[in-house]
């Protein structure tokens, strides 16, 4: 989930009401910040050396998260990790070395916005998108729309097909298209005993937009 790892993309630490989020500034953090309510947002200094260029999850973010968790247990992390250097684990170190500081450090250097998501990537992105974003191996079509935002009686309109909601595959006839709330809470288009992608043809391609009839 971090195709920009090793580039100039920043890392972020976002303070929520009772926890922290640590990760790349690539849009994922903005979504979480908006949904869970960011209190403060800090940018992590870009590591220069001593970390893997393709494994910041281990060498930067995990280490920052550990130190923040330790500080939470001891008191307000803004009085410690937020203004003190946080070590970056040398990718060549052994587990026994993890307790020692290394050559380069990542810093929580600036409070970008104490009221919301601040100037981070994705702050202006929509909460939902009515578009097919993924097709799995069964031909089911995953979308960018949260099911909780759609009326149960709404019909999804794509490629001149009006597709009704069903709770499960067995609720529709074999070969019938339907949409349902998948295990991630998102709208997914499927067909009983058939590939929704195959049935919809051109309309089942990734990037295809769709509409709704309420």
Automatic annotation (TrEMBL):
| Transmembrane helix as UniProt keyword | no
On the tree of life, the source organism's domain of life is: Bacteria
The UniProt record lists the keyword Signal: no
Keywords per UniProt: S-adenosyl-L-methionine
The S-adenosyl-l-methionine hydroxide adenosyltransferase N-terminal domain extends over 2-71
**Which residues span the membrane?**
none
User: Which residues are in the S-adenosyl-l-methionine hydroxide adenosyltransferase C-terminal domain?
Assistant: 131-201
Q: What residue spans carry the region label Disordered?
A: 74-100
The Swiss-Prot or TrEMBL record describes its family as follows: Belongs to the SAM hydrolase / SAM-dependent halogenase family.
Q: What is this protein called?
A: Uncharacterized protein
**Protein species of origin:** Halorhodospira halochloris
């Amino acid at each position: 989930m971090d195709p920009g790892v090793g580039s100039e993309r920043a890392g972020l630490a976002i303070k929520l009401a009772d926890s922290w989020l640590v990760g790349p500034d690539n849009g994922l953090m903005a979504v979480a910040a908006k949904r869970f309510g960011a209190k403060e947002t800090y940018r992590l200094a870009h590591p220069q050396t001593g970390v893997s260029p393709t494994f910041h999850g281990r060498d930067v973010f995990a280490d920052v998260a550990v130190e923040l968790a330790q500080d939470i247990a001891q008191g307000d992390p803004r009085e410690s990790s937020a203004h003190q250097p946080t070590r970056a684990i040398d990718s060549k170190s052994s587990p026994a070395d993890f307790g020692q500081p290394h050559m380069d450090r990542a810093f929580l250097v600036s409070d970008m916005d104490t009221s919301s998501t601040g100037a981070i990537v994705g702050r202006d992105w929509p909460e939902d998108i009515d578009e097919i974003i993924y097709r799995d191996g069964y031909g089911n079509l995953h979308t960018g729309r949260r099911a909780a935002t759609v009326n149960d009686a709404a019909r999804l309109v794509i490629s001149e097909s009006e597709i009704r909601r069903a709770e499960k595959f067995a609720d529709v006839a074999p070969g019938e298209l339907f949409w349902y709330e998948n295990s991630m809470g998102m709208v997914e288009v499927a067909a009983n005993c058939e590939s929704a992608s195959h049935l919809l043809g051109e309309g089942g391609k990734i990037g295809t937009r769709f509409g709704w009839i309420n």
